[in-house]
Specification:
By secondary structure, the chain is mostly beta strands. The chain has one domain: Roll (SH3 type barrels). It has two helices and six strands, in the order E-E-H-E-E-E-H-E. The chain has helices spanning 43-49, 84-87, and strands at 12-13, 22-28, 57-63, 71-75, 78-82, 90-93. Strands 1-6-2-3-4-5 form a six-stranded antiparallel beta sheet. It starts with 11 loop residues before the first strand and ends with a strand.
Protein backbone atom coordinates (compact mmCIF):
# COMPACT_ATOMS: atom_id res chain seq x y z
CA UNK A 1 0.00 0.00 0.00
CA UNK A 2 1.46 3.35 -0.98
CA UNK A 3 0.56 6.63 0.58
CA UNK A 4 0.89 9.77 -1.48
CA UNK A 5 1.74 12.95 0.31
CA UNK A 6 1.42 16.42 -1.03
CA UNK A 7 2.92 19.66 0.19
CA UNK A 8 0.00 21.68 -1.12
CA UNK A 9 -3.73 21.19 -0.64
CA UNK A 10 -5.95 20.06 -3.51
CA UNK A 11 -7.23 22.82 -5.81
CA UNK A 12 -10.64 24.27 -4.96
CA UNK A 13 -13.20 26.10 -7.06
CA UNK A 14 -12.88 29.88 -7.04
CA UNK A 15 -16.67 29.99 -6.60
CA UNK A 16 -16.37 28.58 -3.06
CA UNK A 17 -14.07 31.32 -1.75
CA UNK A 18 -14.80 34.62 -0.04
CA UNK A 19 -13.39 38.14 0.26
CA UNK A 20 -9.70 38.17 1.09
CA UNK A 21 -8.90 34.78 -0.45
CA UNK A 22 -5.64 34.75 -2.42
CA UNK A 23 -3.74 32.22 -4.42
CA UNK A 24 -2.94 31.16 -7.96
CA UNK A 25 -5.01 29.69 -10.74
CA UNK A 26 -4.36 25.96 -11.09
CA UNK A 27 -6.70 25.08 -13.97
CA UNK A 28 -9.77 26.21 -15.90
CA UNK A 29 -12.11 23.31 -16.59
CA UNK A 30 -13.54 23.35 -20.09
CA UNK A 31 -17.29 23.56 -20.49
CA UNK A 32 -19.76 24.23 -23.26
CA UNK A 33 -21.84 26.97 -21.65
CA UNK A 34 -22.30 29.69 -24.26
CA UNK A 35 -21.96 33.40 -23.48
CA UNK A 36 -24.96 35.37 -24.73
CA UNK A 37 -25.52 35.11 -28.44
CA UNK A 38 -21.87 34.88 -29.47
CA UNK A 39 -21.63 31.41 -30.99
CA UNK A 40 -18.42 29.59 -30.21
CA UNK A 41 -17.48 31.60 -27.13
CA UNK A 42 -17.79 29.63 -23.91
CA UNK A 43 -17.47 30.83 -20.34
CA UNK A 44 -14.22 28.90 -19.83
CA UNK A 45 -12.72 30.31 -23.04
CA UNK A 46 -13.63 33.85 -22.01
CA UNK A 47 -12.08 33.33 -18.57
CA UNK A 48 -8.85 32.18 -20.20
CA UNK A 49 -8.94 35.19 -22.56
CA UNK A 50 -9.25 37.69 -19.70
CA UNK A 51 -6.36 36.23 -17.72
CA UNK A 52 -7.49 33.22 -15.69
CA UNK A 53 -4.53 31.11 -16.80
CA UNK A 54 -2.58 28.58 -14.72
CA UNK A 55 -0.01 30.25 -12.50
CA UNK A 56 -1.67 33.69 -12.47
CA UNK A 57 -2.20 35.22 -9.01
CA UNK A 58 -5.71 36.19 -7.90
CA UNK A 59 -7.42 37.88 -4.97
CA UNK A 60 -11.12 38.18 -4.17
CA UNK A 61 -11.48 41.85 -3.30
CA UNK A 62 -15.24 42.17 -2.74
CA UNK A 63 -18.53 40.29 -2.50
CA UNK A 64 -21.77 42.02 -3.37
CA UNK A 65 -24.45 41.81 -0.70
CA UNK A 66 -26.94 40.28 -0.27
CA UNK A 67 -26.02 36.84 -1.50
CA UNK A 68 -22.28 37.44 -2.12
CA UNK A 69 -22.84 37.27 -5.87
CA UNK A 70 -21.19 38.58 -7.98
CA UNK A 71 -17.66 38.72 -6.62
CA UNK A 72 -14.89 41.14 -7.59
CA UNK A 73 -11.69 39.31 -8.47
CA UNK A 74 -8.28 40.85 -9.09
CA UNK A 75 -6.34 38.79 -11.62
CA UNK A 76 -2.98 40.11 -12.70
CA UNK A 77 -3.39 43.88 -13.01
CA UNK A 78 -7.14 43.80 -13.75
CA UNK A 79 -10.33 43.53 -11.69
CA UNK A 80 -13.48 41.77 -12.84
CA UNK A 81 -16.96 41.37 -11.37
CA UNK A 82 -18.00 37.79 -12.05
CA UNK A 83 -20.87 35.58 -10.98
CA UNK A 84 -19.98 32.56 -8.90
CA UNK A 85 -21.57 30.36 -11.58
CA UNK A 86 -19.05 31.77 -14.07
CA UNK A 87 -15.97 31.08 -11.95
CA UNK A 88 -17.09 27.64 -10.80
CA UNK A 89 -14.79 26.07 -13.43
CA UNK A 90 -11.71 27.95 -12.17
CA UNK A 91 -9.68 25.73 -9.85
CA UNK A 92 -7.18 27.52 -7.62
CA UNK A 93 -4.44 26.82 -5.09
CA UNK A 94 -4.55 28.96 -1.94
Amino acid sequence: MSVQSSDSPAPVSLATLHKGARGVVAQVLLDDTQIGESAGTTVSRRLLEIGFVPGEAFEIIAEIRPGADPIAVRIGGSCFALRRSEVQAVLVQL
